[in-house]
Amino acid sequence: MAQTTAPAPAGYRRGDAGYRRITLSLFAAGMTTFVAMYAAQAVLPALSDAFDVSPAGSALAVSATTGMLALAIIPASALSERFGRTRVMVTSALLTAAVGIVLPWVGSFGLLVALRGVQGIALAGVPATAMAYLAEEVHAQDLGAAMGRYIAGTTVGGLAGRVVASLTLDLSTWRWALEVAALVSLAFTLVFVRFAPPSVYFRPQPIGVRRTARAVAGHLRSPRLLALFGTAFLLMGGFVSIYNLLGYRLLARPFSLSQTVVGLVFLMYLSGTVSSAAAGRLSDRFGRAAVLLTSEVVALIGLLLTWVTALPLVLIGVLLFTAGFFAAHAVASGWVSRIAHDHRAEASSLYLFAYYAGSSVLGAAAGLAYSAYGWSGAVAYVGVIFLLALTVVGWLRHGVREPA
């Protein structure tokens, strides 16, 4: 692990060499996580053809990963309390890369889904720990911006995984598409290992089922945290639903785009890279509730634009939907770390449990809406989800005082 100058007592500040190093390493960690997690999303139509499964069945290749990650994320956060943030993240990232390299060469869809579940367990250590790591090492006044950079890494990772897999798929098979994505994930893992500063403010804590349960129960008694966990469940569920099905829609009539062009549509993730970093800074300045509400409204407007059959408007809609979602995620995740002064890893892991549970449960169900009613059914389904999320943030804005 790279060594760096220890932060001042209040934590790393913007402009410090340590701040640049920690944000670079967490950007790479976000890349690693999302390349591994969502490269499969680009090959879902190919998996449907190769294994003769429906869109809802094919989506299990994504839902198995996010579902098992959700189940593993609280144990992973508990391990980070005992063995250290960076040690857990490094182990998690390396195991994820190893599973990813083996996974594309299995012979059945059932085994592929099973290994994707194993990969989800391996992945859990990075997202379970990253937010707590930042909250401990970065000055509170700059935490929003630092968290935004980490979320930006997840957006670029999601983009890279999908685009790399899509471009490879046009030249070869879905197996090589996933293999190349796994090698990209490994490369960013090595960047993270090289640059992540050691924890300065982390202090090991004893772990055990009883202690972890007490910490979790304490967070679940906080109305503000419960609202943010619900926000994560709804927003991520709706977001993954659209991206799981987007390839099916753009490959079919009236668009009939090629696999390469569909892959390039995932460049829309770059809007999330910009918006998440900007939202982190804006939330530090204007308040989290206002920025979260605005971000969700932008995402909902974008979603409605994808309902039309004019390709330019659909693309603008995807752009706004993606930007709004990642801005909202950056704000909500940073807010959790500000509210939870104690047991931050458990608080972050509960947020991410809800986040990935939403991806698994709501994302899988979206395939049923699409199979029954086409894209209109998918948009209506996700629209209801986002309206519920707006209701939650409205309560947060008017019913709960902004934390210091």
UniProtKB/TrEMBL annotation:
List cellular component terms (GO): plasma membrane
Q: Which residues form the Major facilitator superfamily (MFS) profile domain?
A: 18-401
Listed PROSITE patterns: MFS
The subcellular location is:
Cell membrane
Q: Where do transmembrane segments lie in this chain? A: 22-44, 56-76, 88-107, 174-193, 225-245, 257-278, 290-308, 314-337, 349-372, 378-396
Task: Cite the InterPro entries for this sequence.
Answer: MFS (IPR011701), MFS_dom (IPR020846), MFS_trans_sf (IPR036259)
For molecular function, the Gene Ontology terms on record are:
transmembrane transporter activity
Q: Which UniProt keywords apply?
A: Cell membrane, Membrane, Transmembrane, Transmembrane helix, Transport
Question: What membrane topology term does the record carry?
Answer: Multi-pass membrane protein
Family according to the record: Belongs to the major facilitator superfamily.
Known PANTHER family for this protein? BLL2771 PROTEIN, INNER MEMBRANE TRANSPORT PROTEIN YNFM
Question: Which protein, by its recorded name, is this?
Answer: Putative MFS family arabinose efflux permease
